[in-house]
Amino acid sequence: MVYNWLLKLHQKVFPSQCRLCRAPGEPGLELCPACRNDLPWLAHACRVCAMPLPPDADATVCARCQNTVSPIDECRALFTYHPPVDGWVQRLKFEQDLAVGRLLGALLADSLSPDAEAPSASILPVPLHRKRLSERGYNQAMEIARPLAGLGYRIETRCCRRVRNTGAQSGLSAASRKGNVRGAFLATQPLHGRRFILIDDVLTTGSTLNELARTLKRGGAQSVKAWVVARAVQGKGSAGRHAPLNVIP
Ligand SMILES: [Zn+2]
Ligand SMILES: [Zn+2]
User: What are the DSSP calls for 137-156, one per residue?
Assistant: First the structure.
């Protein structure tokens, strides 16, 4: 209550400005309505792997996911990994721009429909290895997850650790990425019956999210969903160029 009051006061004294065009931003958001509208929103995508589906497709699951079993029960991505979102993610990861993490998290929180998963599920930002965390000083997935606490979600940081410092995934092929993250996570508590929503910045091949989901399910988790800011797809974006992706026509 006090926090909300202070937030409103802060917004009045320091009105936000759109980080793209410098026009006045929406309340509490560094984004104006026109630029928000122009973002590369991912409207229709496979509900298991978040790969875009043709706009007129009736199916909600892509051909590949229809024939494979994924440890992730449901996945949604807010955007495709295209400008300006790709640049924002890079700034968040490598330039300590935590404000852009707040913006992305606020957009993610804002996109949740009222019938979204009840806050009985725990939000789990994909853990960083402690060495990487001390180098960077923060976990970018945690920065994205923070605004979700305002919706009543519990943000979980203790039940699972990243026990292997796997190095950067970018630049590796899909097969190498999978091998690179094998055994990367360890559940540190019994997870029977628990439900999780994983949060991450970019989904490329899904190997990291899949490995984390497998670890949680082996630990007894009942369901694991994933919400990511951006889905890398082949094409003009800047993320898909390294790894061959299974694009379903
Ligand atoms: Zn703008
Ligand atoms: Zn799929």
Answer: SS-HHHHHHGGGGGGTPEEP
